[in-house]
Design goal:
Length: 208
């Protein structure tokens, strides 16, 4: 999905509110909203897996709580085997502002996922993170690029350099395999990676 989406609450590049399953999906457009804004899903109480987003995600407004994420704005469900390279910006006069390159606010679970987009948050900057902005849930085996994100900290996950993000050793424990080049795929694994050249990519994912 490559479109421009603008709205108020629960705004996503593919789905606004998800209470079911989003799988093998992606969004590459720009998303703008004022409460729960995500590059792929605005507000998710369900499952998001084997999916990714890229583009620009912007949250701005005066709502009591603003969650902006490159992939999911507010996650109370499950995110797994997903990634985002979206650039994320959150700004406004909210009492609580959560901005993350992958997930803005998380009270659910995030696993085997990563982000590489830039993150910017104005006001309440303590809730701005390289992977997750605010977290009272569980984040496991997930990573963000501390160089491209411009963030050395996150409410969950582990920060890595760009070189480390392009090394299969970083993702030990994932269902991942090295391949010779981006056009060669090993469909037996969820993730493929070209050692030293690419971030992990999903086996079905087109490489641009």
């Amino acid at each position: 999905m490559n479109v421009t989406v603008t709205g108020n609450s629960s705004v996503g590049g593919l789905v606004g509110g998800n209470s079911g399953t989003v799988r093998n999906s992606y969004s590459a457009g720009s998303v703008t909203g004022s409460e729960y804004i995500g590059g792929l899903v605005g507000y998710s109480t369900g499952t998001v897996s084997n999916s990714y987003s890229r583009g620009n995600v912007t949250g701005t407004g005066r709502s009591q709580s603003l969650s902006v994420g490159g992939l999911v704005g507010l996650n109370t469900g499950t995110v797994s085997n997903a990634h985002s390279s979206a650039n994320v910006t959150g700004t406004g006069e909210q009492q609580s502002l959560y901005v993350g390159a992958l997930v803005g606010g998380n009270t659910g679970t995030v696993s085997n996922s990563y982000s590489s987009g830039n993150v910017t948050g104005e006001r309440w900057s303590s809730y701005v993170g390289g992977l997750v902005g605010g977290n009272t849930g569980t984040v496991s085996n997930s990573f963000w690029d501390i160089e491209t994100s411009g963030r050395a900290t996150s409410a969950g996950g582990t920060g890595k350099t760009t070189a480390e993000m392009k090394s299969v050793a970083t993702f030990a424990g994932w269902n991942i395999m090295t391949v010779a080049n981006p056009t060669t795929r090993n469909p037996s694994y969820i993730w493929n990676i070209v050692e030293g050249q690419t971030y992990p990519f999903l086996r079905w994912e087109p490489i641009s």
